[in-house]
Design brief:
alpha/beta, 3 domains, six-stranded parallel sheet, Endonuclease, Chain A, Rossmann fold, three-stranded mixed sheet, 20 helices, 16 strands
């Protein structure tokens, strides 16, 4: 650009000036890569802005159209002193549009090689440039915008600007959350009045995540009222005439049915809200027919639910396909295929204090319910492939576990940054300590959480005289037992043993071997229960062995002459 003598630049949209600092027009000065946060321009911005401002003062005139949507064409007209040149097409006057950026744009441009056409284009531009009714001089505005990039800023201003960039999305989400509550007159409901402040904040966050990502995992600690928060979410959907299904373990069914208006229970503190959601147990997903209350499982329209609330969602942590010969689908498959993927775009609220039990694959199975099993379902939170992210995170965890370290900070440093973005985007997990620290008013209303009494460990010997043998000696003695009572096949002559395996799908000898091993483990469990229980078991075992020995001693060989052969039985 240093070789340019004079330049005239015309903005085709007035918004380019008004929104010069808009995140959609100006790319962020940082990016995420595998190692974390990386600055794109580092400290070169101020010097570049100074040079650009001086270049504009010396050589550039800048005007802009006044009305939005008036000018759509892109024209570059150059006079090199010998002959004019012109390019007409789709390229914007940006780094990528000029082919100088990292990303390769696909543009369609035409070189205008006719002298008459180039002259006509220049005439058109001059007429538009000089029309003060359509365009205006904006060079000073551009220079002021550039000045903000290189001027020395007050440290306090830099601090506030940093806070805005860090928490701007959070503040925007807060406004959106409040709007979701107010648009349905939700604050007049009984469930809203029953919520504590921390539950109301949780409700706002859950609704925002469900509306934005199609689902949310509410993983608050035990005792923080996940059920009541979920009831508030359900009521918000019901006020918008949406169908809601609650899936819960069978033993927790009454926790949800007590609030239904159909039960007309005087024990229901939320009677005025008249809840009408459907309640089914996890096990009902395995049934093709039958009735659950007023619901006929043979005629239910599984794909007609706008929201599914899954209590104890960690029970759906396994997404493996059922390979049984009958072809019967697992509960997870039924939920995914018939409820989530069928019919309406179903949104999902998962409730679990422990969404990860053994492995990060537990979390992935539940996240797949939110994304309807799409690997790119969380691209909007920076996760283009969920399976790849979880797989990489699992490998990081395995490597950390093998290292023998128990320093959690080392694990956090190893995990991909995108995992934390994903968890922030679709999960809410608060502890009692968090509530105590940040919700003093709620704690005053609650009266505090109950204090857990520290367990008292009592180490008692089996006998006071110390005569009982060591556990290792008892284990060795039990391991030496033959327990032939449970292995009758060992007494069958080798040439006849194959007859006992005919027609079965197992090896009888192995089956007896495993049974004997299980019996030995059972003996140790009885000893763990109490010495008296172990003694009774041993006494019964000895009595049975003696009885069998007596039967053998009294055996009449002539009585077995006409006994049928094993293959005739």
């Amino acid at each position: 650009m240093d070789n340019v003598g004079q330049m005239r630049f015309l903005f085709g949209e007035p918004r380019f000036l008004k929104d010069a600092d808009n995140a959609g027009l100006v790319p962020p000065a940082f990016s995420f890569d595998e190692s974390g946060l990386r600055l794109t321009e580092q400290i070169r911005q101020r010097a570049a802005a100074l040079r650009c401002a001086q270049w504009i003062r010396d050589r550039v005139e800048i005007r802009s159209v006044k009305r939005s949507g008036l000018l759509h064409g892109k024209l570059i007209h150059i006079d090199d002193g010998r002959r004019p040149h012109a390019v007409l097409g789709s390229s914007n006057f940006t780094i990528n549009g000029l082919g100088l950026g990292d990303s390769a744009n696909i543009e369609l441009n035409l070189i205008v090689d006719g002298d008459r056409d180039r002259e006509d284009l220049l005439t058109w531009f001059d007429e538009l440039w000089s029309d003060t009714g359509l365009t205006e001089d904006v060079r000073e505005e551009v220079l002021r915008a550039l000045e903000a990039s290189y001027a020395h800023a007050d440290p306090q201003f830099v601090y506030f600007k940093t806070l805005l960039h860090l928490f701007g999305d959070f503040l925007t989400n807060q406004a959106a959350e409040e709007a979701l509550i107010q648009q349905t007159a939700f604050e007049q409901t009984a469930i809203w009045r029953a919520l504590f402040d921390f539950q109301r904040d949780g409700l706002r966050a859950v609704l925002t995540k469900i509306e934005k990502h199609g689902g949310c995992i509410l993983a608050d600690s035990v005792g923080l009222g996940k059920t009541f928060t979920a009831l508030a979410v359900i009521k918000w959907f019901e006020k918008r005439n949406k169908n809601v299904l609650v899936l819960c373990p069978k033993k927790l069914r009454e926790n949800w049915t007590d609030y239904l208006a159909a039960n007309n229970s005087e024990m229901n503190p939320l009677r005025e809200d008249r809840f009408g959601y459907a309640v089914l147990s996890h096990t009902d997903l395995s049934r093709e027919k039958g009735r659950v209350g007023d619901i006929d499982l043979a005629r239910i329209e599984w794909g007609n639910y706008d929201l599914v609330v899954i209590d104890e969602s960690h029970n759906f942590r396994s997404a493996s396909r059922n390979k049984s010969p009958s072809g019967r689908r697992s509960r997870y498959e039924r939920l995914m295929d018939d409820v989530i993927k069928t019919g309406l775009r179903t949104k999902v609220l998962l409730l679990s204090a422990t969404p990860v039990n053994n492995d990060l694959s537990d979390l992935k199975a539940q996240l797949d319910l939110i994304s309807a099993d799409r690997s790119d379902g969380f691209a909007d939170v920076g996760v283009p492939n969920l399976a790849a992210l979880i797989g990489g995170s699992r490998r990081c965890f395995v490597d950390w576990a093998k290292s023998g370290s128990r320093d959690a900070s080392q694990l956090l440093n190893k995990l991909p940054p995108a995992l934390f973005g994903l968890l922030d985007g679709v999960t809410i997990a608060r502890s009692r300590r968090h509530v105590e620290r940040h919700y003093a008013a709620s704690m005053e209303q609650i009266g505090g959480f109950p204090k857990r009494v520290a367990p008292e460990s009592v180490f008692a010997n089996i006998d006071n005289q110390g005569g009982f043998p060591a556990f290792e000696d008892v284990d060795a003695a039990i391991s030496k037992l033959e327990l032939a009572l449970y292995g009758p096949l060992t007494f069958v002559l080798p040439e006849y043993r194959a007859l006992y395996d005919k027609g079965g799908n197992f090896d009888q000898a192995n089956r007896e071997k495993y049974l004997i091993a299980m019996m030995k483990v059972g003996f140790l469990k009885r000893l763990e229960s109490s010495v008296s229980s172990f003694r009774q078991t041993m006494d019964r075992m000895i009595a049975r062995i003696n009885q069998r020995l007596g039967d053998l001693d009294n055996f009449d060989a002539t009585a077995a002459i006409d006994a049928p052969a094993p293959d005739e039985v």
